[in-house]
Amino acid sequence: MSYIPGQPVTAVVQRVEIHKLRQGENLILGFSIGGGIDQDPSQNPFSEDKTDKGIYVTRVSEGGPAEIAGLQIGDKIMQAPTPFISPNGCWPPHKFQD
């Protein structure tokens, strides 16, 4: 779906709950993210607004928890539970806790 200037835009906001999967000693969610305040928003392939500093899903692992929950490449992350966000505002998957 692409944005066409002057045409109506539909935004769908859906709460998605992803349950971590244990693989050995690691807990995985099965997706990667890109974007954010420390990235060049003009390089964001998922937004027509080249000032958008949002966080977007860039990869979803086949059969992983994120795919099972319905997450798709290009989805914008609007909010994450605060225990998962580090004090500097980053959201590193390797710091998730059980």
Walk me through this protein's architecture.
This protein is mainly beta and 98 residues long. The chain has a domain at 29-81: PDZ domain (Pdz3 Domain). It is built from one helix and five strands. The protein has one helix spanning 65-69; strands at residues 21-23, 26-28, 31-35, 55-60, 76-77. It has a three-stranded antiparallel beta sheet with strand order 3-4-5. Mean pLDDT is 78; it is low at 93-98. It is a peripheral membrane protein.
Pick out its properties.
98 residues, mainly beta, Pdz3 Domain, two-stranded antiparallel sheet, 19% strand, globular, phosphoprotein, nucleus, PDZ_sf, cell membrane, wnt signaling pathway
Give the low-confidence spans. 93-98
- Spatial separation of the terminal alpha carbons: 36 Å
Q: CATH architecture of the domain at 29-81, please? A: Roll
Cα-atom Rg, whole angstroms? 15 Å
Question: For this structure, what is the CATH class of the domain at 29-81?
Answer: Mainly Beta
| CATH fold-level topology of the domain at 29-81 | Pdz3 Domain
Give the total of beta strands. 5
Keywords: Acetylation, Cell membrane, Cytoplasm, Membrane, Nucleus, Phosphoprotein, Wnt signaling pathway
Subcellular location: Cell membrane; Cytoplasm; Nucleus
GO biological process, one term: Wnt signaling pathway
InterPro entries: PDZ, PDZ_sf, Synaptic_Scaffolding_LAP-MAGUK
